[in-house]
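[audit] Reproducing an earlier prediction to check determinism. Same input, same settings, fresh worker. If the tokens differ from the archived copy the diff job will pick it up downstream; this log only records the rerun itself.
[audit] input (249 residues):
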Amino acid sequence: MAIAETNVRAKLAQTRVLRRRELTPDHWLVWIEKPDGYTYKPGQYCTIGVEGVERAYSIVSAPHEESLELFIELVPYSEGGHLTPKLYELQPGDEVSIRPRAKGIFTFKPDYKNHVLVATVTGVVPYISFIRDYLHRGESGHHFYVLEGASYDDEFGYDDELSKLASEHPDLVTFVPTVSRPNEERNSSWKGATGRVNQVVEKYVEDQGLSADDTLIYACGHPGMIEDVKTRMGAKGYKVEEERFWKDD
């Protein structure tokens, strides 16, 4: 999904697709060449385009990594997609345009000890960047609780990475994936949590004994999920940071 963005009048550069990996018929990971001098903070987004059509996408990779990693959901032309069908056709070596500066304020806020990172599918992207960067810099003293929801278990693009991090750094990372359609055949092998992620957050925070005094909640992904999390947790005194992902329009 893309982030809504305005004021993108700036000089374009061209960069190349380096590699891609399919997850589902509608989701894929892609790595593009990072232009010389391109800088960003974990959680920010880049604006890329094909044939003059541009959209903004949160960056998966941490700033120290050599390429820009993206996690994209396909929205077909028949459903109003404009850019993602073009991106989906790209193969290694093909070119995309990129705006010279990353943008966005959905970044890690170190003043809080506990960070509850709530996401739907591609909304997990900025959190991966947070954690990779945090580990790269050798930071300590915080805990990341990643709660990710999806309709189907094959839509979790970074479940292996997050599970590994939670196993290797239990004092730093906790990962709770949940599927909303557990009875469908596509989820027949799923043994984890079930239910919409926005309905899981409240009980999870209570079970962990977290407090609004030292806990910040982030919500990234589907606008409906974000509104529900804000309503549920705002009523309990929690501050909620948000990043809304919109269908490719």
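[audit] rerun output stored. Observation attached for the diff report: The chain has two domains: 2-98, 114-246.
[audit] end
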